[in-house]
């Protein structure tokens, strides 16, 4: 007979929930859902040993358990603290927790450029959301922020440590999903950085997943970088028969161009199924995929804005009221511009002025043209300046 599971009752922000013994406070809160779920920047339920680094998930335990109802003396990281039977937890109902979280955000941003307008992650960035929802409008930090050169980790991934918050997710993903860790955190304290030892490229066929787990714009897809803002692209779910992974992915389309392929993410922003590099980086044609339909974007996000389903187009009445005449166009832009001749998914890097000057296959002289590179990427622009692609 199957062993009966031991269940604990825990109260989070005055809501009771029953969970299995060994569940963390965070996972118990996720079972309830809604605003009372603490934010996370380093925890990732699909990866072992994550959590405990960033402290954004701090909560107050005002009663430890029924057996010992004393409060815990300090705020605890909910992603690493297991519930006890009768535990009482305060998150958004306790102003001290929210104030402490503001402090954590301020710390996370000490060395962060916060250059969202030119960052590839903007619009789908956990740190951006966290700063808006839990941060302060100013910083007390007066010193120069640390900066790093961009590093090309092989042909597909670029690391810009300037934006890294050292959450370790990519290290665990490389260990556990790609099964081949060639990078990690080198040095300590203010010098700590994600690095590949002697800047080797990351060769595993599953290594692209580090891009999806990175909560910020530190690890980016070189086949997509700066080709478009995510909120201009349309996410659809699609699949293909893939010998390496399940082939269930999300395509990010602009018209008929597949600008980006990513794994599908759940309501917590976590990958549902890991996908291989071939699906992610090599299959950039609509004909490579069977489209299932528009992605349902659960998270409050600019990506969700503008992707409506079931829209009814208003009736066009111009001709009717103008006695059958067509509207006069000031200028038909499609006849004078090469914009529609450019296949963004086919050019090797972001479009530049050169792309639209009679050579739609050209990606100009932008640094991301150079896909073969490994190591420091110092071409073209000041690579320690985050405000450049
Ligand atoms: S990673 Fe990019 S989008 Fe996110 S907060 Fe930093 S600069 Fe903004
Ligand atoms: S590169 Fe991204 S995933 Fe890796 S530690 Fe930095 S922030 Fe985390
Ligand atoms: S999410 Fe809990 S410490 Fe980072």
UniProtKB/TrEMBL annotation:
Keywords: 2Fe-2S, 4Fe-4S, Iron, Iron-sulfur, Membrane, Metal-binding, NAD, Translocase
Cofactor field: [2Fe-2S] cluster; [4Fe-4S] cluster
Pfam (any one): Fer2_4
Residue numbers spanned by region Disordered: 351-389
First-listed, main subcellular location of the protein, grouped into a coarse class: membrane
Ranges of biased composition (kind: Polar residues): 354-368, 380-389
CDD domains named in the record: fer2
Gene Ontology molecular function terms on file: 2 iron, 2 sulfur cluster binding; 4 iron, 4 sulfur cluster binding; metal ion binding; oxidoreductase activity
Subcellular location per the Swiss-Prot or TrEMBL entry: Membrane
Protein name (Swiss-Prot/TrEMBL): 2Fe-2S iron-sulfur cluster binding domain-containing protein
Native species: Flaviaesturariibacter flavus
């Amino acid at each position: 007979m199957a062993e009966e599971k031991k269940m604990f009752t825990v109260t989070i922000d005055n809501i009771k929930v029953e969970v299995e013994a060994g569940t963390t406070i965070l996972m118990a809160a996720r079972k309830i859902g809604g605003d009372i779920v603490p934010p996370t920047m380093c925890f990732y339920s699909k990866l072992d040993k994550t959590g405990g680094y960033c402290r954004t998930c701090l909560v107050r335990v005002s009663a430890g358990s029924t057996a010992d109802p004393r409060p815990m003396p300090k705020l605890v990281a909910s992603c690493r603290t297991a519930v006890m039977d009768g535990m009482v937890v305060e998150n958004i109902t306790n102003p001290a927790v929210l104030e402490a979280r503001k402090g954590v955000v301020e710390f996370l941003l000490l060395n962060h450029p916060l250059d969202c307008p030119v960052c590839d992650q903007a619009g789908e960035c956990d740190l951006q959301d966290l700063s808006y929802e839990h941060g302060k409008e100013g910083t007390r930090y007066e010193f120069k922020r640390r900066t790093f050169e961009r590093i090309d980790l092989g042909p597909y991934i670029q690391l810009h440590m300037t934006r890294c918050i050292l959450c370790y997710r990519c290290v665990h993903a490389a260990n556990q999903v790609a099964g081949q860790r060639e990078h990690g955190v080198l040095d300590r304290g203010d010098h700590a950085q994600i690095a590949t030892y002697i800047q080797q490229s990351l060769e595993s066929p599953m290594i692209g997943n580090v891009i999806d787990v990175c909560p910020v714009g530190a690890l980016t897809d070189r086949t997509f970088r700066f080709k478009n803002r995510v909120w201009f692209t349309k996410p659809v779910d699609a699949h293909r028969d893939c010998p390496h992974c399940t082939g269930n992915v999300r395509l990010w389309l602009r018209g008929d161009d597949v600008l980006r392929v990513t794994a599908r993410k759940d309501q917590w922003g976590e990958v549902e199924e890991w996908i291989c590099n071939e699906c992610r980086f090599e299959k950039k044609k609509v004909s490579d995929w069977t489209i299932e339909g528009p992605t349902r974007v659960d998270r409050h996000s600019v990506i969700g804005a503008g992707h409506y389903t079931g829209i009814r187009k208003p009736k066009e009445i111009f001709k009717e009221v103008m006695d059958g005449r067509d509207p006069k166009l000031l200028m038909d832009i499609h006849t004078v511009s090469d914009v529609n001749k450019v296949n963004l998914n086919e050019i090797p890097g972001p479009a530049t002025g050169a792309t639209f000057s009679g050579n739609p296959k050209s990606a100009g002289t932008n640094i991301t043209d150079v896909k073969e590179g490994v190591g420091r990427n110092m071409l073209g622009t000041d690579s320690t300046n985050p405000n450049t692609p």
